[in-house]
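Example record

The entry below shows one chain as it appears in the dataset: sequence first, then structure tokens.
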Amino acid sequence: MASKRQIESVTNLFIGLLVDEIKKGNRTSSTFNKVRWRNIQTEFVRQTRCQYSILQPRNKVNKLRKQYSNFHKLMSQSGFGWDNVNKKVVVDDSSIWESHIKVSF
């Protein structure tokens, strides 16, 4: 099983490939066309030496968008903050976190 650090490394590589395509001007809307997805997938496979289908990068982007949306929603609520040194969410008071968990689930 892959470690958390390995997963983060692969995710960062993937995001870097997406950013590279955007910097090249290869995204004209909120997503990439089929040729660009193929470029991303091919380069990702080349660098990781793991076989991924053409759909897996698209699915990963959708998952990352959802995670970002959830994170942004959490950070917009009063009492939540971000510890940039430890890379984690912090709260002013533990009761805030408990209240959030009760409401969310």
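Notes for this example: The longest strand covers residues 80-83. The chain is about 65% helix and 10% strand.
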